[in-house]
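Team,

Forwarding the record for the chain on the shared tracking sheet. I've put the sequence and predicted structure together so nobody has to dig through attachments.
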Amino acid sequence: MTATVKIENDIALITMDDGKANAISLTMLDALNAALDEAAAAKVIVLAGRAEKFSAGFDLKFLASAEPEDVRRLVNGGGKLVFRLFTLDKPVIAACTGHAIAMGSFLLLGADTRIGARGPYKIGANETAIGMTLPGFAVEMPRDRLNPMYMTEAMVQGRLYSPDEAVPVGWLDRVVESADVLSAAMADAERLLPVANAAYGRNKILARRPAIDAIRPTLVD
């Protein structure tokens, strides 16, 4: 399985684990969307990766060999997944268990709260370094969630950060010891249960309306 769901006490824990780098493939996209469907009844969602790997980003081997239409399907599907997290009507917490690169870092931006594991991990968007132009959602989401002082360094120059460095940039909200990242995320989920109501979803949309309006047209059907 590439994504599993465990629901307990109104908290859904979605864990990505493909046994490798948690690359975002068409299979992983289908699994994550199915997991979110299954988690609809929960009040809070925690999205986690496997040990040392949150997600290494899009499946580059697939992108290098696929037909243009399949490339568009993967990239657009990734954007739709991030947008789904970004607009979900309930709290979403990311337990960043390790490396979160490129599309993996955009999954972090889709979450409301991002807790990272301290360690020799890299966080950020390295598209420039690998010769890729950012799709629309990958421009507008960082514009909304990252510290404007770091936008050029993070998005144009493609710098990758350690977890502690990633906090002031805006990729993460805080960092804990690696062994504690999941328990910290679950504790935050429990803390947010009392405010996981209809107003939470409405206020999230209101607060993010400019970004939502900018991102939606970039995602083709």
